[in-house]
Amino acid sequence: MRTETAPSTQLVRRVNASAMLKAMRGAGIMTGTDLMAATGLSRATVISICDELVRLGWLREMETQRGAEGYIKGRPARRFVFDDRAASVLGIDIGANKITTIVADMGGNALARVTTPFRAFNVGADERADVLDRIAAEALQKAGVSADSVLAVTVGVAAPVSRDGEVLTVQEFWKSFDVRRLVSERHGWHVLLENDANLAALAERWRGTAQGVDNLVVMLTGDRLGAGILESGRLLHGQLGGFGELGYLDNVEGVGDTLGIAHYVALWGQEALASGADTQLRELCGNAPDSLTAGMVFAAAGNGDHAAQDVLNRMAQRMARVIGSVSTLANPELVVLAGGVAASAHALIPAIEEQLPKFTFTPPRVEASSLGDGIVSIGAIRLALDYVEEHALDLYPASFKKPAQPVS
């Protein structure tokens, strides 16, 4: 007869330590009683794990508070605070045209951000790794922290990624560029890999307009469309990491591909110029249609330009079809439009929401992200922090002083 074995004591301690760190991060000074209330753990467990986390350098124990007369009545409450500067993490977004790196402390506070234009697809793997090295070194120097303080790095990529952190794609670029292995071998850091839209979803729920929303779709809407989906607060990957991939849009009437808002707003604006329309767009682009950008079209529409407004109305209808199809499948409470065009996408939302009931019986709220084009790197920080919290008893901050080995 098969019997089930109980989880090991060490595994339980890891889970409990992770719960305590989550409760303490950003909460200030907490007593054992506070932690018991926040985690549901017994006093003995709380104090035991606090002692271990103090020893490892994750927590600092504060001096005992004294009364007005300078003495303490009864047994003094032990007080602990999470040390945000115990270690650091990196979040890296490898885009088609630039790489963005954020250095953060253990409280999730960004210490430095560096963005470098870089056409990663045009060079070999070693040169890409060299560029990553330089950007990471620049960000760490700007943050004033050392490389050995880094306990985890998350890299966001525009490709499906499995639960095990493997890129699942036939693109030759990712076959030749094992970014996780290269970064780990060069620095000794633990490297996590995740899809960029999934990281955007984590960022939005952590720091964006979707805080507290458990059923969520975040769409990267720049040159291409991508979606990260949370259900009941859990990021969905699917069997091979392809949940949220939008290739099916090739077969959706009125959509036809996965090209994004920035691409089509600029293209349709250029078409308006080619048609000879009387429009501000000609002046904005210096009578050079190829230089017309999506931002120029949004600006002209905001100034009442009819040709530009027609472009945005057309885009709103297209995005209503996209969001409607995703919503019929995933039934989210909220869809957030994110990425480089998010600040301008506010102009599309009233028309999108007006048209959504035509394309889904369960229309969600639609909002634009406030996190800008750093959203993927912010989500990468969140995932790295989650990893460190989960493995806190197995990781050693730079401040940890290992006991001296006895001399034989």
Structural account:
The longest helix has 25 residues. The N and C termini lie far apart (50 Å). The strands form three sheets. The protein has a five-stranded mixed beta sheet with strand order 6-5-4-7-8. A five-stranded mixed beta sheet has the order 11-10-9-12-13, with helices on both faces. It is built from 14 helices and 13 strands. 40% of the residues lie in helices and 17% in strands. α10 crosses α11. The chain folds into three domains: 74 residues, Orthogonal Bundle (Arc Repressor Mutant, subunit A), CATH 1.10.10; 138 residues, ATPase, nucleotide binding domain (Nucleotidyltransferase, domain 5, 2-Layer Sandwich); 160 residues, Nucleotidyltransferase, domain 5. The protein is an alpha/beta fold.
In short:
GO terms for molecular function: kinase activity. The protein has helices at about 10-25, 30-40, 45-55, 125-145, 170-175, 180-185, 195-205, 260-275, 280-285, 295-300, 305-330, 340-345, 350-355, 375-390; strands spanning about 30, 60, 80, 90-95, 100-105, 110-115, 150-155, 190-195, 215-220, 225-230, 235, 335-340, 365-370. The strands form three sheets. Strands 6-5-4-7-8 form a five-stranded mixed β-sheet. Strands 11-10-9-12-13 form a five-stranded mixed β-sheet, sandwiched between helices. A three-stranded antiparallel β-sheet has the order 1-3-2.
Please tag this protein with its features.
single chain; 408 residues; alpha/beta; Arc Repressor Mutant, subunit A; Nucleotidyltransferase, domain 5; 3 domains; five-stranded mixed sheet; 14 helices; 13 strands; 17% strand; globular; WH_DNA-bd_sf; kinase; NBD/HSP70 family sugar kinase; ATPase_NBD
